[in-house]
Amino acid sequence: MRNKKGVLIDETITWQDITPGGVVYEAGSAENFKTGDWRTMKVDFIEENCKQCLLCFPVCPDSAIPMKDGKRVDFDQDHCKGCGVCFAVCPFKAIEFSKV
Questions:
Q1: Given this model, what pLDDT does residue 93 score?
Q2: Within a domain: residue 88?
Q3: What is the pLDDT of residue 73?
Q4: Residue 88 lies in domain
Q5: Are residues 65 and 53 in contact, defined by beta-carbon separation less than 8 angstroms?
Q6: Does residue 24 carry a pLDDT above 70?
Q7: 97: closest CA among 63, 58, 56, 69?
Q8: What whole-number distance in Å separates Cα of residue 57 and Cα of residue 80?
Q9: CA dist., res. 12 & res. 47, Å (int)
Q10: By CB neighbour count within 10 A (0-12 exposed, 13-18 middle, 19+ buried), where does 99 fall?
Q11: How many Cβ atoms sit within 10 Å of the Cβ of residue 62?
């Protein structure tokens, strides 16, 4: 089924499958909850534009910019909320946003 905007909706998801919002059960538990589906903007990593300056990495409030072997890699879409902070600091247009 699709909603009014044409976005495909998975009707098999029950309320038990949805992560609780705003609840911190213990320190460091945010990684246990996939909160990326809360976003209104989808982020795209334009790897060929990235110069690995790493200005985006420390400003991400959701730790959704993973690092591998000292380099940033594509976004963790399970946790990115589309806030746009990384987009604002990227001088190389390696980050783009689109509406969900």
A1: 96
A2: yes
A3: 95
A4: 38-99
A5: no
A6: no
A7: 56
A8: 12
A9: 34
A10: exposed
A11: 20
Report the first-to-last Cα separation within the chain, whole angstroms: 16
Q: Is residue 29 part of a domain?
A: no
The total number of structural domains that make up the chain: 1
Span 41-98, pLDDT tens digits: 889 999 999 999 999 999 998 889 999 999 999 999 999 989 999 999 999 999 999 9
The string of DSSP codes covering 44-87 is EE-GGG-----SSGGG-TT--S-EETTEE-S--TTT-----HHH
Question: 3-class SS at 38?
Answer: helix
Cα–Cα distance measured from residue 39 to residue 61, given in angstroms and rounded to the nearest whole number: 13
